[in-house]
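pinned: reference chain
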Amino acid sequence: MLDDRDDSPSARHVRGLGTWDDRSNQTGWNVLLGEGVRGGPDVSPCAAPARAEDLSGLPPTFIDVGSAETFRDEDVAHASRLWQAGGRGELHVWPGGSHGFDVVAPSAAISRDAVAARAAWLRRQLGR
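pinned: its structure tokens
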């Protein structure tokens, strides 16, 4: 949940579908930012990282997202912008995954792989 404007191709593609649809997303942003602020010109990049002009100096970042969810394109864009700024990031786009796939179906192979990838990244960051 990085862009309060909620207008990426993946966001448009899954409108009204899935465990976290556009209505859920708009509610989340309204709760965070206040009613009527979402999508407007005065949103802080501290609240909506997609608004940040400079991503340099950020710590190593792990991003994972399902390919069939609203956040896919904003997460991929964020990873690309992080790399362009010289940052270190690891991006996983899980094929067919919807929002929360690992919680909804924790024993599915894709969920086990996602959890393992997160744990491996964290071990590398902690030097273990």
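why pinned: The longest strand covers residues 61-66. The radius of gyration is 15 Å.
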